[in-house]
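JOB MANIFEST
job_type = single_chain_structure
chain_count = 1
residues = 201
[input]
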Amino acid sequence: MNHIASIGLAVLMICIGLHSAAAQSVGSTYTSTAAKDCRQIGKPSELDGSTTRVCKGKDGLVVLIAEDDLREIVSVGRNRRAAAEEPAAKVWFAPFNSSETTIEWRAAGTKPFAIIQRWHIADNSDPDKQGRPNTKAMLVVTRLPPGPVCHVAYVDAIANTTANELARKAADDFARSFICGKDEVKIIGTRGRAVELATMR
């Protein structure tokens, strides 16, 4: 093969590589974490009703949902044990809270790199007519393997009218390069009451 042909082949391979990368468009798919779609681990605690369930995710990943004392954690891993060891499994919001049962998976091609989930954070300073705290909605962006699983960004769902779009952009822009334990969770858009409650210490 002569020199010109070699250069031509190299350019062709680069173009093919760029085309393949471009073909890996980023998009969303969805899974459920509703109890009926998941596997209950053990029985609810007789003491406080705490529960743990494992739900099918994407690309061989599972979602771990653990509820204790009216607070939840959500983590992801190749199996329940791996998910339970991730940083995301050790993050508890101080106020009572719960996550919605739809998870949005952001993926490049078929490889998911982040999940987005809506959470409801109890606001004790805003009671309803029965004296129970109203909740404030927030979107949580969580990075996925390879590498640790942890929260990347919070988007206040009430303070931002385009919260879903902001969360997707945060996932696309930050999740894959986010360093768990070093980088601070990013507050995206307008900082509202839900984010204020979630970041209370």
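[summary]
The mean pLDDT is 89.
The longest strand covers residues 111-127.
exit_status = 0
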